[in-house]
Amino acid sequence: MGENQEKNEPIILCKDVHKWFDDFHALRGISMEVQLREVVVIFGPSGSGKSTFIRTLNRLEEHQRGQIIVDGIELSHDVRNIERIRMETGMVFQQFNLFPHLSVLQNITLAPIWVRKWTKDQAEEVAMQLLERVGIPEQARKFPGQLSGGQQQRVAIARALAMQPKIMLFDEPTSALDPEMIKEVLDVMIELARSGMTMLVVTHEMGFARGVADRMYFFDEGLIVESGSPDDIFNNPREDRTKLFLSQILHH
Amino acid sequence: MSDASEILAPPSPPGFYEWLRKNLFSNWFNALLTIFSLVFLYLALVNVIRWMFFTADWRPVTGSPLLFLIGQYPRDQLWRPGLSLLICALLIGMSWGVWERYVKAFAIFLGILLGVLALIPLETPTITLVVRAVFLVCPFLIFGGFWVGRRSGVQGRHVTTLWLIAAIFILLVLLPGLSSIPALPVVPTTAWGGLLVTLLLAIGGIVLSFPIGVLLALGRRSSLPVVKLFSILFIEVVRGVPLVTILFMFSIILTLFMPAESRIDRILRALMAMVFFSAAYTAENVRGGLQAIPEGQVEAAKALGLSGLQITSFIVLPQALRLVIPNIVGQFISLFKDTTLVIIVGINDLLGIGNAVLNLQPDFVRLQMEVYLFITAIFWVFSYFMSYASLELEKALGVGER
Ligand SMILES: Nc1ncnc2c1ncn2[C@@H]1O[C@H](COP(=O)(O)OP(=O)(O)O)[C@@H](O)[C@H]1O
Ligand SMILES: [Mg+2]
């Protein structure tokens, strides 16, 4: 399915996605297309629905109207579809969400062994390669609680990559980190973007956006206010709200 | 340079006198307290020892030790509880080999105790030479089991499986007997008693109520309304009723509605009551642990594509159970002590035997102190080793915690 994709068929297609929390209209019609190997940055004020949106893509939140198609599979109540999409998408959270009772290696190999049905040896080999890639192979036998925040987030990235996803979702991956650890995580993400991974990244790291993003989306109040290339967004933002927000986060 | 290193050197540990002065005699009031306590402790100890060895009359205990161990189990069938004891000794030894830090203390204690029982020069007609021989073999079996359990090929799950097989064999075949096997005449459980019954109820109650309690706790959070409702009803009804009432219900009311030939065994009914009772409390304990697991854990597992069952068994339950181990062990110790309540439905557990022994001879009636102290000691020893294992488990699981 994904392999025979035509050049312009998007790997993620969202049409008029709506989401309510009780009466609260959190997503008010989001439409977005993401091509294979594209890096998309989503930014906007707190509470604007960025997390909610990115979480509808792997069904951590259920959308109530509109259409979401990931890698040719439409997200619906069909559990098999949800399973398949979750196998194709990795997610990295603001709070890392590593499993504290499992070692770093076990954190990474759990899903490959039980979902992809790899052997333990196979999974551990891949895990070690990934730890190498994120720069902490020496931490394999430790537990998450023994690592720094930056190291934990890099393990979380390795854990998501171990499932060999086609798409990686990042929800503010550096917001919970001390400033001196942000760079080590961003470096891993930049390397990943350059390697051709399709990425959706919620972040306010504008250096990262300028460096690797293909498109940027500005969210406010559950809507996409403006989108464009980093060049458009930083140099000629059309909307006043975008200008105001950018001036607030860039001048700090 | 040398100055700095002198300053950085750690302070040397205080000497003995320094420690004494600091902790026990830091001012005149503390010094007074220390002296008073020492005098009090000395007097108490001297009197207790004097009472134990010179005043106390231990005949109710020493006269019929087998009664305390197995109740009225027919004396011509003694080889059956004897063989059970030997099997258990071997498995306790293997458990020591496999789960060293939890079982070691208990295994060594039991080995020494049985060795002493075998050799103690007491004039008790019921303790025959054969019985002494069985006791004497136990320490060797424990040590042999330890030696086997330590070999690298033997793992926890092997020993667990052996325990299961042994429990089924002992409790369903060896002790009750089968009418189809002439060598194993049926021994009705009305004849069972003493420590045998107490341990049967306690261990059976713990082992059976734990998985049921975990399932109830999960059921209470289930998205299936029927499962959820059933779990809530079960937990809340059972927790709202005293154990004594549940025991009565199972022992008396249950038999009223059942035809005589399909009646469930009396000890089994008591066991079911204990399991019901304990499962409800286990469920509530486990639920507390489940609630403490952050939603992010489940989300991360979902995002990796793990199924609901996998998330529960690999992510949520292991973390939740670790949090509630101290509570659950505490609850199991309570359950162990609560087994004494089965007296009221006519089962002769350890305490029941104690009461019965007091009525054995007219002059025993005034020896309550001796009998109850003896029973207290037995309960205390088991409870102590349970707490001990739980503390070790907490320490072991603390590794790698946030
Ligand atoms: N589970 C929830 N229940 C109710 N309201 C929610 C829930 N999750 C998010 N919201 C609300 O939806 C809005 C968007 O939230 P979110 O997507 O987390 O914003 P962002 O990630 O852009 O800061 C916020 O107003 C938030 O309060
Ligand atoms: Mg957010």
Task: Give a written overview of the molecule.
The complex is a heterodimer of chains A (about 250) and B (about 400). Chain A has helices at about 50-55, 80-90, 105-115, 120-135, 150-160, 180-195, 205-210, 230-235, 240-250, and strands at about 10-20, 25-35, 40-45, 65-70, 75, 90, 165-170, 200, 215-220, 225-230. With about 250 residues, chain A is of the alpha/beta class. In chain A, a hairpin with a 2-residue loop joins strand 9 (about 215-220) and strand 10. Chain B has two domains: about 75-185, no CATH class; about 190-400, Orthogonal Bundle (MetI-like fold), CATH 1.10.3720.10. In chain B, helix 10 (about 195-220) packs antiparallel against helix 15 and helix 10 (about 195-220) runs antiparallel to helix 16 (about 350-360). Chain B is built from 17 helices and no strands. Chain B is mainly alpha-helical and about 400 residues long. Adenosine-5'-diphosphate (ADP) binds near residues 21 and 26 of chain A. The site of magnesium ion (MG) has 3 residues of chain A, from helix 1.
Record keyword descriptors for this entry.
heterodimer, A: 252 residues, alpha/beta, six-stranded mixed sheet, four-stranded antiparallel sheet, 38% helix, globular, disordered N terminus, B: 402 residues, mainly alpha, MetI-like fold, 2 domains, 17 helices, 74% helix, binds adenosine-5'-diphosphate, binds magnesium ion
